[in-house]
Amino acid sequence: MKKRRAIADINVVPYIDVMLVLLIIFMVTAPLLKQGVDVDLPNAPANPLDVDSPEPIVVSVDRKGAMFLNIAAESDAQIDAVTLVKLVKAALLKEPKRPVMVRGDANGPYQNVVTTLVLLQQADVGSVGLVTDPEEVR
Fold first, then answer.
1. Cα–Cα distance between 59 and 99 in angstroms, integer?
2. Measuring CA to CA, which of 21, 52, 101, 138 is 20 to 30 A from 8?
3. Which of 5-9, 28-32, 44-48, 116-120 comes out lowest in average pLDDT?
4. Rounded to 5 degrees, what angle do the CA atoms 52, 56, 59 make?
């Protein structure tokens, strides 16, 4: 009678199956995890942010003047002026070099962006960038 030798190799087929299932799950759920608020940005030539810079604080203002903050507990929930000032001030105390950006709706009144800039000034923000869509090449 012949003796059987034990095979010491790992059976990788179940691991591959699990990885494929996880890949499919992430591919299906990734588009559903959209973050932020829909805002029509104005077109303008601008340089992109540096990759090495920390994640910016982004205040979005829609055409009705509602404000949204990406560092708030719920980034897609409207935020009031007092809470905006408190959260931005606290974030900048932790990381003073963090850039602050404003996303203003291109079809909204300019007053909405100016009001947001005044609130950021109250939060002791030294400099503010404006987010734009890249200009289309014609």
1. 11
2. 21
3. 44-48
4. 165
Nearest to 59 by CA among 31, 87, 34: 87
Residue 92 contacts residue 124 (beta carbons within 8 Å)? yes
Model pTM greater than 0.90?
no
Q: What sign for the dihedral angle of Cα 81, 87, 119, 70?
A: negative
**Token pair 């034990």: residue:** 6
Q: How long is the chain? A: 138
Bridge partner residues of 58 (DSSP) = 101
- The tokens of 70 are what? 């990406």
Token reading at 78: 């409207």
